[in-house]
Every structure is written in C-alpha cells, then in structure tokens.
Amino acid sequence: MIQTPDDFEIRLDLELNDESIVHPFMGQSLVLNAEVPRLQAWAHYRALGLDAESVESVGLWQGVPHLAVRLAGQSEGLPPELRSAGLRQWFGLMPETELAIAMRAIQILEWDRTHRFCGACGQPTIRMSGERARRCEACQLSTYPRISPAMMVLVTRGRQLLLGRGHHFPPGRFSALAGFLEAGETIEQAIRREVFEEVGIEVDQLRYFASQSWPFPNSLMIAFRAEWLSGDIRIDPAELAEAHWFDLENLPQLPPHLSIARALIDATVNELGARHP
Length: 277
What we know:
Nucleoside Triphosphate Pyrophosphohydrolase; 277 residues; alpha+beta; six-stranded mixed sheet
C-alpha cells in the first residue's frame, strides 16, 4: 500500500534550485526518464531546455527538498528520452516512496491551478503566508486543498468475500465496495448506505482497517471490514457491472498491491484463513 514515508516533513517555504528533487508534471501526467523512471534534480530538466510554469513546495525527505513543478509547453515537445504518463501508468515502474510523494505533489499543483480565482466572487486569489491556502482579498474567502473522504468496505460472510466489479475495471477484476461520503454523514453511515444502495444487503460489525491518500483526483480512502447481516445481492447497474460472493479458495483477479483495496483484501484473507482453516 502506497504511503508517504513517516520521516517526510511538510514544508511550505522551499524554493526551486538546481539541487531540488522535482516532481515535474504536464497536466495530470508525470514526466520522467523513459528508461530509468526515477525522480531527478531540477538541473537535469533545465539542462534539457525545460521551463517551470509554476512551482509548489512539497516537503523534505531525508533532508532533501522535494518540489512540485508544472512544466511549460506540451508533451509533444518533450525531449525523446522523457516520457509523460499518468501516475497510474508509473505504478510498479518507479520506487513506491517516490510515487507516494508524487501523489502528494500533483494534488497540491492541481489545487493551486484550480483556485487562482475566488469561487464566491470570481476575483483573483493570493497565497497566504504560513499555511497551504489561497485567500480572496475582495471577500476574504480562504480556500485550502480539497480532500474528499471516501469509504471502502470489504464485507465477509464466513469464508466468503463480497467483491464488486466497477464499469471502469479491467475485465475480470473485482475489488471491495467503495463510495463517497455525503454531507453530514459519518463514515459508518456512509458504509451502510453505500452497501445497501450498491448491492442491496445490510451489514454489521464495522471495523476500521486503514486509510490511504488517493489523488484521483483528491480522495482519502478510509477502509473498513464489515460482516453480512441480511439480504441477497441485488446490484445497482448504475454503480456496478457485477458483484458476487467469492470463496477464499476461488478469488478473482484483484487490484494491484499498491492500493489499499488489495491490502484490505489480503489482510482479510489471511485472517479468515487462520480463523476458518
């Protein structure tokens, strides 16, 4: 499961220089060396003739400054040794720690890009000193990076797991159920509502598992375990392509190991296997 390292230090005051490690983006795409996809210092990109359109301080990791950079120009004009691709396409190709910080970097860049003007009165905003925020001088509205909480739940029934396949999933892949919280809901209320809406069953015995930042575009996935209480599967076709109970010995294709969904499923399979050998 991808997570920012514990020794990462958030910083708002870092400035771009040749020694800074950068997370260079064009739109939503991270730009790395095609052959060796590793983060590099700004001097490398500057030597290739690239310019920074905007820069955001991200933080320090092991004493080294990391900054998010939105590159000027278009991906078609990149040097041939560089590749521009969405973060998902770099999964498994670059170190997980670097990917975790890059996931943080793109959220900061996108927040800055989409909050240049006030959402209340339309006037330009300015950066606030000492905190990650932009303020409208006309109406004094302050805006902070948006985080959208989403619940994830793996429902069990004895030695069976309830897994669903979203419409956007690759053929044959299933995962735990998930959905966004509504205003005023607790996570527990959202779990019970989403499970009933998506598959028509009721659940009980909710247990927190873990959380993971998920920048597609700005979610915080909060994962739980739950036990089946009543009802038969009756999917909402607007939400899921299909959903089934799967025995531990006959699981379908699962999400990649970098996701919290896979960590949740693996931990549950291990626990149920030990409890019900």
